[in-house]
Amino acid sequence: MSDIITERSGAILRVQLNRPAQKNAMTNDMYTSLAEIFNEADKDDAIRVVLWHGAGSAFCAGNDVVDFLHHPPGPNAFPQGILMDALVAFSKPIVVAVQGAAVGGGTTMLTHCDFVYAGESTKFVLPFINLALVPEFGSSYSIPARAGYLRAAELYLLGEPFTAQHAAELGLVTRVVPDGDLLATATATAEKLAAKPSSALQASRQLLKQASIGPIKEAMKNENQVFFEQVVSADAKEALTAFLEKRAPHFAKSAV
């Protein structure tokens, strides 16, 4: 079965991450496939809204660490970057239902969505520092822009989990809803959007986003450059290996 399932319902394209046993952790192939889905949906005039969610108990656990170690990203092979470009270029509303866990990219991808509904038991975490990595998907700009520097620093420099309610307080979530109502709530919003005049909907969305597009692209460029340097570091190798071995990492001491 496909790792990503799509289904059309009228003017709505439903996109479901479909690796429930792996908490929908993203592989390189999934990044590429998801980018293609968004690019094709953008060109299809019959699609007005994307409804995005995950199968099973989690929205997305970030990168599949095994796949990540076997196919490390770099300037000449960076499927995550293909998805970043697709999300920045996408011209139609994205409504997302987030349940269970939203880890790393499972959180930062949400910054490109227009409506983010989180189940009340959802846990978010930006664990990049714990893996000796750095923010991505332009989130080094978008999250401080929404939450303020001090709150963003707390999320990124400590890398600790936070609740759906705290995510809402930081401006990362549209609304927190009961877990059992999550998909229905997101679907209802997608249906309302699909009934709006499409040209005015897309034009309004573009106007709301235009001031942030340039800074987000610049942030992505800077993030990616540093990410490529960090991902080949000894600390990153140790962190990812320790994660797979279920032990605490032992980072080298910095020179004073």
Automatic annotation (TrEMBL):
Alphabetical list of InterPro entries matching this protein: ClpP/crotonase-like_dom_sf, ECH/Chromodomain_protein, Enoyl-CoA_hydra/iso
Name of the protein this chain belongs to: Enoyl-CoA hydratase
Taxonomic classification: Bacteria, Pseudomonadati, Pseudomonadota, Gammaproteobacteria, Lysobacterales
Top-level taxon: Bacteria
Organism for this UniProt entry: Dyella choica
Molecular function in Gene Ontology: delta(3)-delta(2)-enoyl-CoA isomerase activity
Keywords recorded for this protein, A-Z: Isomerase, Peroxisome
Subcellular location: Peroxisome
